[in-house]
């Protein structure tokens, strides 16, 4: 009996020691070795290090976009800005929606889809075919992809809500056709989304 009890105690002690070691490895190595199973660093952090930064002080947020991209021809405002790729085949639009106090992203999307339902010659201007819930800047968000009825090209979009205001990213893929979106394009959109942060206007 005594031998079995000692063996059980040793196993419990070794398990506790192992858990403590793994905890400290997570705290120490996780931020600098994202490829480890316990890493928690943003996997895109190094890739976006040299990107340009757009900062919006009226709405207290910022995000990064590729260093080779430039402001598009659309007229910017405090609640709207867009950037285009060098070949003008991809455009990123960032919009702030504050026309009313939205209760959630889902509340906003109901309104958006209702407005779009007959916006293109009585048909939906965008037909969504995929939707997933994600986090942007530690905030619940929704990412969707669909097809623009006017040009037949795909679009990716993401929306998050904070204090009744909705922040939206729309990624236009002008050279693609139908629902075709490459893995590289999805990664690029995700990279941009991971750089979005709310900023303290008083700092």
Task: Summarize the structure in short.
Helices cover 26% and strands 33% of the residues.
Topology diagram in text:
Layout: H1 2-29, E1 52-56, E2 61-65, E3 70-71, E4 80-84, E5 90-97, H2 105-116, E6 126-136, E7 139-148, E8 154-162, E9 165-173, H3 183-194, E10 197-198
Antiparallel strand pairs: 1-2, 2-10, 3-4, 4-5, 5-9, 6-7, 7-8, 8-9
Textual characterization of the structure:
With 203 residues, the chain is α+β, with helices and mostly antiparallel strands. It folds into two domains: 1-41, no CATH class; 52-198, Mog1/PsbP, alpha/beta/alpha sandwich (Protein Transport Mog1p, Chain A). Helices cover 26% and strands 33% of the residues. It contains three helices and ten strands. It has helices spanning 2-29, 105-116, 183-194, and strands spanning 52-56, 61-65, 70-71, 80-84, 90-97, 126-136, 139-148, 154-162, 165-173, 197-198. The chain has a seven-stranded antiparallel beta sheet, sandwiched between helices. Strand 1 and strand 2 (61-65) form a beta hairpin. The N and C termini lie far apart (65 Å). Residues 29-41 have low confidence and may be disordered.
Largest sheet: 7 strands, antiparallel
Overall mean pLDDT: 85
CATH class of the largest domain: Alpha Beta
CATH superfamily of the largest domain: Mog1/PsbP, alpha/beta/alpha sandwich
Tags for this model:
203 residues, 7-stranded antiparallel β-sheet, Protein Transport Mog1p, Chain A, 26% helix, elongated, 2 domains, 3-stranded antiparallel β-sheet, alpha+beta
């Amino acid at each position: 009996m005594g031998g079995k009890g000692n063996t059980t105690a040793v196993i419990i002690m070794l398990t506790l020691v192992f858990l403590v070691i793994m905890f400290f490895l997570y705290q120490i190595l996780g931020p600098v070795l994202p490829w480890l199973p316990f890493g928690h660093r943003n996997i895109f952090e190094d890739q976006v290090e040299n990107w340009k930064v757009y900062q919006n002080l009226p709405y207290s947020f910022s995000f990064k976009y590729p260093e080779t991209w430039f402001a598009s021809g659309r007229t910017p405002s405090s609640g709207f800005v867009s950037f285009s790729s060098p070949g003008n085949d991809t455009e990123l639009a960032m919009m702030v929606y504050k026309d009313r106090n939205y209760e959630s992203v889902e509340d906003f999307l109901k309104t958006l889809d209702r407005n779009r339902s007959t916006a293109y010659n009585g048909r939906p201007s965008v037909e969504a075919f995929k939707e997933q819930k994600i986090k942007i800047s530690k905030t619940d968000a929704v990412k969707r992809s669909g097809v623009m009825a006017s040009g037949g090209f795909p679009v990716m979009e993401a929306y998050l809500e904070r204090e009744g205001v909705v922040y939206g990213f729309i990624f236009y893929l002008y050279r693609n056709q139908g629902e075709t979106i490459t893995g590289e394009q999805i990664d690029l959109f995700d990279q941009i989304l991971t750089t979005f942060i709310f900023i303290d206007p008083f700092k």
